[in-house]
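Quick one, T. Sequence first:
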Amino acid sequence: MLGLQSYGSSSEGESDSEQSHKQKEESGQALPAHLQPVDKTHSLSTALAVCAAPDVVPMGAVAVSRTLDPTLKEVAYNPRYEEMYAPVKGPDHPNLTMQQRAPRNTLAGYVEKAHINAFEFENQRRTFHTYGYALDPTVDEDADGKSFVGDLQSAYDDNGKTVFEAPKPKKMRKQEKNDNPEDVEGFLGPWGRFENEVTVAKPNEQERAELDELLSKRHKRGRIPEDKPLEEKSTLHIKDAYDYQGRSYLHAPHDLGVNLRSNAPPPKCFLPKAHIHTWTGHNKGISSIRWFPKTAHLLLSGSMDCRVKLWEVYGDRRCVRTFSGHRQAIKDIAWNNKGTHFLSASYDRYIKLWDAETGDVVSRFTTRKMPFCVKFHPDNGKQHLFVAGTSDKKIICWDTRSGDIVQEYDRHLGSVSTITFVDDNRRFVTTSDDKSMRIWEWDIPVDMKYIADPTMHSMPAVTLAPNGKWMACQSLDNKIVIFSALNRFKMNRKKTFTGHMVSGYACQLDFSPDMSYLVSGDGDGKCYIWDWKTTKMYKKWQAHEGVCISALWHPHEASKLVTAGWDGQIKYWD
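Structure tokens:
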């Protein structure tokens, strides 16, 4: 300011107006009063000097010399503590809450970096998991170290010892000692007994009573209740059980116009067109039907009403005999080669051998497991042997003469569904709920071949072709798959029969005698016929109201087949 004043009063800095005034004075012209210059003798400008910014030391300058931006990450000098922790100055946002005003360096709040010894951290962690207490991490180092978290009582009792310090003294049991080697009889060494040690653990009377009660309950729970023997009876429904020569109804008639004793199939088979007969008599659904061996002049049916019935196929088509002797539904039935006896397998866990002519039960077999399929050995010399697939994953072979189990085949991982003899009866094929197929040599309890594929489904029904070269298997993915029955047992992927719905049902299928057609029922009650060579579906029709569980082609008739359903009816088609 003083410089400006001196600058303004210097002769060098005279303005143009002052020069014009001087020129007028020199020319003798008088200036007006307000334009005449002020006399410096009367002016205070020479005596006073105005300083607008004096050099003074402001208050508090020693406390805060420099300010820091709170958002700075780097500082180019070494700030003092008072500078770093000085309160934030400046205008605040008027609408922030207390939580938003709080300083923070993360989304959740303010995190301060802390450094801790790795050993000390592990020490406290193990101490907390072992003893239940640890030092309080929120207390500074300057504290006395007596602040704990967790089980405070244990911490004060143990004086805050950690797992790396002296362990807790264990209460050792007192042991009898005798370390004198001269005492041969009484020397104990480290094998001395503990005090009050009981060497024989015998329950007292109260504990024994409790144990006996528990064991009796377990035994009752695990034991299958033995049913009282059911009255096994059969009812003959016809009066002329014997003809004029004394032959029973098991004898095949000659006067039918069809040679039932011929081994040759009909020269050509045709598709059935009409429904010609219905056998009724079962109160519940049919589970299995079987032709009489070779001649097929009789039909055997097992039902869920616990009964087996024998029907005439020719003549009046009457019900010949009813066999009653099971408590629960029939699962499977099987003839022997001569047709004099048959087996019935039931859900009551019994397999019974019946005399087809007299209706008597010859013998009973059980393993306390449910049998799902039964089959006599097809050789004439081994008709006293039969095999059964059970719910406990085994195939069991019985001898009907002695009633003993002579062989067990235990390799499946699920209940056994079917048994099929192949290769001149030297081998047999089994399928199971484990979605696999196993091939066995007869009387060798180790499978010779195991067929399983991730794409395979369970196959609860299998039928051997009349020529013995192929097996048709009802697969539960709504297909019929074909396997070779010779040597390699390979699946024929070119022959797959589809179009029906059998998922969840064990629908029995069959070949026509000349192997030109394949017939099967399905879950909707329809019957399907496919061409064997082309796998095309030739015909389908509604055969039953419920499930059509079985379809069998007559071995001596060109166009006749029988179907059975869960509606309790057996129908004959031509």
